[in-house]
Write a structure and sequence with these properties.
The complex is a heterodimer of chains A (about 160) and B (about 140). Chain A is of the alpha+beta class and about 160 residues long. Chain A has a single domain, classed as CheC-like (Chemotaxis protein chec, 3-Layer(aba) Sandwich), CATH 3.40.1550. In chain A, about 35% of the residues lie in helices and about 30% in strands. The relative contact order of chain A is 0.29. Chain B has one domain: Four Helix Bundle (Hemerythrin (Met), subunit A), CATH 1.20.120. In chain B, helix 2 packs antiparallel against helix 3. Chain B is elongated. The chains are: A alpha+beta (about 160), B mainly alpha (about 140). At the A-B interface, helix 2 and helix 3 of A face helix 1 and helix 4 of B.
């Protein structure tokens, strides 16, 4: 997987957290993993189709998720209910949408599927690459990860020929 | 939802409508998230849905009129986003009619409504104010 696929998601995460929550996001060191498994309590999986195929998994600690939604709502939020889950899915959706716009500028035309919420850390998700790249982020309300497994669709077509 | 000064774009009509939307959505979220009997919250949900269906038409029309007036280059893009949002509200109205005002469906709707409003005001519409400032004028 090309590391250049990572930067659009980093940039989009930074912009969206600032725009929606006035939160600064600092990127940590990139690492690779053999499996696509949620690293934290509440996660959002978004499938990518088009010139790139694969998935993006956003993984957040429970308290950070509650704090994010509390900041946006301007009121205390104390459980991972349908409202919190819906808002979290939308934040991941908006980050992914913006990242895809940046990828479009680099001549990759892609679409995203509706966000799927994954609670807990027991779910194994399908990978399209041998390794998943994990980008950790730090904010003043907690740390989260964006896990990325993406490959070019034309590679798959060429392999099939 | 807290209104922030940074959201103001300098166009009084649009800023006032945005403030009203924030105020209404905050009230709606507070009602939906308050502990207590779900059936008691349904009138507020119905009221908010009816308000959104009517008010966004007025708001989007005013915003689009202003964009045309200043030759805003992203007019078509904004119009498309407005149409998508109206579509989302109408889809939920259909689902509420078919499935009922269940807590799960209302919570899903409220998460989408809140995030949409923030993005609409804090990102998309900021470009209107930025455009006017770039042109050397004052938004009005």
């Amino acid at each position: 997987m090309k590391v250049e696929f990572i930067e659009p998601f980093v940039r989009a995460a930074r912009d969206v957290f600032q725009m929606m929550m006035d939160l600064d996001v600092r990127r940590g060191e990139l690492r690779a993993c053999e499996q696509l498994i949620p690293s934290k309590d509440a996660s959002v999986a978004i499938a990518v189709t088009g010139d790139l195929l694969g998935s993006i998994l956003f993984s957040f600690p429970k308290q950070m998720t509650l704090d994010m939604v509390a900041i946006m709502a301007g009121m205390p939020v104390d459980e991972l209910d349908g409202f919190v889950i819906s808002a979290l899915g939308e934040v991941a959706n908006i980050i992914s949408g913006n990242a895809l716009a940046y990828l479009h500028s680099a001549n990759y035309s892609c679409n995203i599927c509706p966000p799927q919420i994954v609670l807990g850390q027991d779910t194994h998700l399908e990978m399209v690459t041998r390794k998943v790249l994990i980008v950790p982020f730090k904010t003043r309300i907690g740390e989260f990860d964006i896990m990325i497994t993406l490959k070019e669709a034309r590679q798959q077509v060429e392999a099939a020929l | 939802m807290m209104w922030k000064e940074k959201y103001e774009i300098g166009v009084e009509t649009v800023d006032n409508q945005h403030k009203e939307l924030f105020h209404r959505v905050f009230d709606f979220l507070a009602a939906v998230q308050r502990k207590g009997d779900w059936s008691e919250k349904i009138p507020k949900v119905k009221e908010t849905l009816a308000f959104m269906q009517e008010y966004v038409i007025v708001h989007f029309r005013d915003e689009e009129d202003y964009q045309l007036q200043i030759n805003f280059p992203e007019y078509e893009e904004h119009k498309e986003v407005h149409a998508k949002f109206r579509g989302m509200i109408n889809q939920y109205a259909v689902r509420f009619a078919e499935e009922g005002f269940t807590q799960a469906l209302v919570q899903e709707f409220s998460g989408k409504l809140m995030t949409w409003l923030i993005v609409h005001v804090a990102d998309m519409d900021q470009r209107i104010g930025a455009f006017v400032r770039e042109q050397g004028g004052q938004a009005q």
